[in-house]
Design goal:
By secondary structure, this protein is an alpha/beta fold. It has helices at residues 16-24, 36-49, 60-71, 85-88, 93-98, 115-121, 151-163, 175-182, 186-189, 216-228, 237-249, 254-268, 295-304, 329-346, and strands spanning 4-5, 53-57, 77-81, 101-105, 132-138, 168-171, 195-199, 210-214, 274-275, 285-290, 307-308, 310-312, 318-322. Bound molecules: pyridoxal-5'-phosphate.
């Protein structure tokens, strides 16, 4: 059966070129910096982001956690968006493992945080308050709909960070989607961020891995935290090889994912029972609220036809769709037809 998996861009499978590179990868003991393929991927990542150094980690969650541990200590606070992945979807690792408190400020509909709100959330130097140690932003913003912060947005927040001598961390799990959407070099987009993490395992199509990039000093400290978390690796060249292929071959094609997401969003807007503003979605994520009562049942019926969507919330009424390398334009046509027919036949309003 034809399967179109729109639940996440983590559903991508390694490409034939990745599998070949993985099989043939030169390897060594990465904990001693002796794996030439890991070293190459780290150098490429540092170069692409315009940072001094980079380190390979097993996930984006680990990237954000290691960044938090690098810049904050127990009993201190970090400022995060109230809809951020760090705050909502990483099992409260910074708090549970690092004793760091989350200070939330409002994300607007496109994931931006007002620089003024950030400034107001920085604690004064007074014994009543936890010292503020880090500001974190997310680009693209997952729960806001894959929306993009521009270099000017990032600079506005970066200026506040600099004025208060605070490090700015960017959760750039999908930062390449932002760079492709804006047609802007990645380095320009992350210039104001002291640290940035990006996922190899989402739109870039790798089976595993994230990179954390920053100053040499901060990345050295990050390596220590990676080790403490049990995340330091040995012959990880087999993983890094896929990352090298991803950076060389999988970035520019993301424009197709964005076009497919747009087509999907505008198609959904024409189907009874879907509420969304199709023009809101800039990259590869589309969210829609459904108005039929049996949303979970409809999602199950689509699943039976090979169309997999992410029906969220306790009632399954908010649907998330993510386009990626394993979904093409014809798959979107098929998906829209399947949804339209299934809703017509089975939706209860
Ligand atoms: C997926 C994601 C992460 C975490 O990445 P994992 O590799 O799944 O741990 C972090 N931030 C954002 C915005 C994400 O979408």
């Amino acid at each position: 059966m034809r399967v179109i998996d729109l639940r996440s861009d983590t559903k991508t499978r390694p490409t034939p070129a990745m599998r070949k590179a993985m099989a043939e990868a030169e390897v060594g003991d990465d904990m001693l910096a002796e794996d030439p393929t890991v070293n190459k991927l780290e150098e490429m990542s540092a170069e692409r982001t315009g940072k001094e150094a980079a380190v390979l980690l097993s996930s984006g969650t680990m990237g954000n956690l290691v960044a938090s541990l690098t810049y904050c200590q127990r009993g201190t606070e970090m400022i995060v968006g109230d809809r951020s992945h760090i705050f909502r979807a990483e099992a409260a690792g910074a708090s549970g493992l690092g004793g760091i408190a989350y200070r939330t400020v409002a994300n607007d509909s496109r994931g931006m945080i007002s620089p003024k709100a950030i400034e107001n959330a920085i604690n004064p130097n007074d014994q009543h308050y936890a010292p503020t140690k880090m500001i974190a932003i997310e680009n693209t913003h997952n729960s806001c709909g894959g929306t993009v912060l521009t270099p000017a947005d990032v600079k506005a927040i970066g200026d506040v960070a600099k004025a208060h001598k605070l490090p700015l961390h960017m959760d750039g799990a999908r930062i390449f989607n932002a760079a492709v959407y804006l047609e802007t070099p990645l380095s320009e987009l992350v210039r104001e961020a002291d640290m940035v993490t990006f996922c190899l395992s989402k739109g870039l199509g790798c089976p595993i891995g994230s990179m954390l990039c920053g100053t040499r000093e901060a990345i050295d400290q990050a390596r220590r935290w990676r080790k403490a978390l049990g995340g330091a690796t040995r012959q990880a060249g087999v993983i890094a090889a896929a990352g090298v292929v991803a950076l060389e071959q999988m970035v520019d094609r993301m424009a197709d994912d964005h076009a497919n997401a747009r087509k999907l969003a505008f198609g959904l807007a024409n189907i009874k029972g879907f509420v969304l503003d199709p023009g809101h979605f800039q990259t590869n994520l589309v969210f829609a609220d459904t108005t039929f009562k049996n949303a979970l049942e409809i999602a199950r019926k689509l699943d039976d036809q090979g169309v997999k969507v992410n029906a969220r919330g306790y009632d399954g009424k908010t649907w998330r769709f993510v386009t990626h390398a394993d979904v093409n334009s014809a798959d979107i046509d098929f998906t829209l037809k399947a949804i339209s027919a299934t809703v017509k036949a089975h939706a209860v309003f």
